[in-house]
Sequence to fold (382 residues):
Amino acid sequence: MSDLFSPFTLKGVTLRNRIAMSPMTMYRSVDGHLSDFHLMLAGSRAAGGFGLVFLEQIAIQPDGRTSASCAGIWDDAHIPGLQRVTALIKDMGAVAAIQLGHTGRRGSEKKPWHGKQQLPASDPDGWQVRGPSPIPHGRRYTLPVQELSSAEILDIHRSYADAARRAHAAGFEWLEMHFAHGYLGSAFFSPLANQRTDAYGGTLEKRLRFHREAFDAVRAVWPSHLPLTMRLGSDDFNAQGIQFEDALWAITELKQHGLDLADISLGMNTDDMKDVPFGEIGFMVERAARVRRECALPVGVSWNLGVPEAANRVIRDELADIVLLGRPALSNPHWPVYAARELGHADPFSLVPEDWAWWIRTRPGPEGSLGWPLPSHRPATR
Fold:
């Protein structure tokens, strides 16, 4: 029986465990370039035991960023900074993953701690946002949206392919396309955001065309032995938006185009969402399990899975194949070790690099003297 700490092989890549650091936007880039901050963030999580390490959504075009301070891969000049990070992740025993995306009508923002308001194109840190239709997202995102022309859509698909080539040159071994969270791909899929009357809008089949063409463009240049995955907005939690059955159909379609794993998340194409169980542990797990079962495809899942037993159950009960952790990975760089101790793993420190493990295992002294709290299932000794 597999658990969180079992290896997982997808195509020609084997993860040392089923624990992934999910992409989290950090607002620490300048002109799309990574910095020492990203080296620290990714390297420490790889050293902390994560099997798969993402950075953040990496923009394929300058206007595909969330803010002017977000990372990009639209220029060959971005490759050296990305190479530094992938080399360190690999040296620490993890697999380096990249998530390519375009924020569409949800871009051009202030940093969240500065208010997260959308900036107009006239602002030095803003730009004209684009989308499938001239419909603002709503609430914080109220500025006019430029409808993409067919030529602009094809240009975006070329940018996906160019970004994939750069990702491979930079040393990434796992590529995910971000079609969730109200960003451009998600917006094309949702009737809330896509009200086009051409070949990219209207029926479900046409609303998936953007995904298919972008995916095919990447599949043509991304090495066949490396995983190509997708984060899909599987539910808008709105009666007029994406329904989960739509997502099941879409994943089955994209499987025919070479999709290797589906990462199941929210659509987020409106703030008018109904009955989203944000307070529940692992509330997307049931949907992920249906995808795994009904589409016969490996699945990753996130959302509220920082409790070790809950995350382990996902793998143990064969509900998903990998667990992606965002905020838990930020709050605890050694979350895999913490989880291993909580779950009674025979050798929790086997998850960290060999040199670190040697020092930790051979440290003399009473239990607890290393600075790790005792596992909650074991009483403290006096």
